[in-house]
Amino acid sequence: MSAETALIAEDEAPQRAALLDMLAEAWPGLRVVAACEDGIAALAAIAEHRPRVAFLDIRMPGVGGLDVARAAVAAGGLVTFTTAYDEYAVRAFEAGAVDYLLKPVRPERLRETVARLRARLREPGLPDLLARIEELEARLRPQGERAIRWISASAGDSVRVVGIDEVLYFQARDKYVRVVTADSEVVVRTPLKELLAGLDPDAFWQVHRGTVVRVAAIERVRRDELGRHRLRLKGHDDALPVSAAFLHRFRGM
Q1: Dist CA 181 CA 231 (whole Å)
Q2: Which of 67, 144, 211, 229 could cysteine-pair with 242, CB 3.0–4.6 Å?
């Protein structure tokens, strides 16, 4: 029987190394196919290796652990989060029925998690974890967090206000982000990552490192003659790139 495979995503190098060492002791037969320092690298590794288990830091630069978890689950894997959240927030993990490890990770706690993971991998079918991850995201969202309702941008000597319902996509360009509507666009200095944190994850999807698109505006995703995936919007001429790491979002489309 071939060894089970795993991915680790943790942006702190000492904690990443410690987890690797503890896993080697707690699960000797496990083959770690990638140890990543950010979410973008983790998404690429999942697309390449399709690991059976992913140990993910819930907060990572680039792309957060929840988005990486969706890709891991879509590839047929199980997920365990590592988190420094306090006791109150940990209840969200327990309520969401998703495995978690509190930082700093203790060897005895990791052994318990490994035992559960190995038991689940022996089961004939994996549970529907995508729904549980969505529930977890809702529970972890800070109370009172304000979603973006409008975008304001300078235009000469005036300020243009764009309602979030008008936006088709956001695209990072150098030090700016393009905010594109059906008939116009503005640019803002707010980083794409910061904008993404204030968007409804059911209404907007990240499809590329520098692109976030309104889901309802998507018409199709097609692969070109060079094997690259391009996204077309309804009634719009722009063709937007889709990274391989985000293709899992379009299963069944």
Answers
A1: 16
A2: 229
In the chain, CATH 3.40.50.2300 covers 5-140
Half-sphere exposure of 160 (CA within 13 A, CB side): 15
Q: Where in the chain is the domain with CATH 2.40.50.1020?
A: 150-250
- Considering the domain 5-140, what is its CATH architecture? 3-Layer(aba) Sandwich (3.40)
CA dihedral 186, 192, 194, 198 (to 10 degrees): 70
Any idea which architecture 150-250 has in CATH?
Answer: Beta Barrel (2.40)
Q: pLDDT of the chain along its 253 residues, tens only?
A: 467 999 999 989 999 999 999 999 999 999 999 999 988 889 889 989 999 999 999 888 767 788 888 888 888 899 998 887 665 556 656 655 578 888 889 999 999 999 999 998 888 766 667 777 777 776 666 544 557 888 888 766 667 888 999 999 999 988 899 999 998 899 998 888 888 878 888 889 999 989 999 999 999 998 888 888 999 999 888 899 998 878 877 865 5
pTM of this prediction exceeds 0.85 = no
**Burial tier of 128 (Cβ tally within 10 Å: 0-12, 13-18, 19+):** exposed
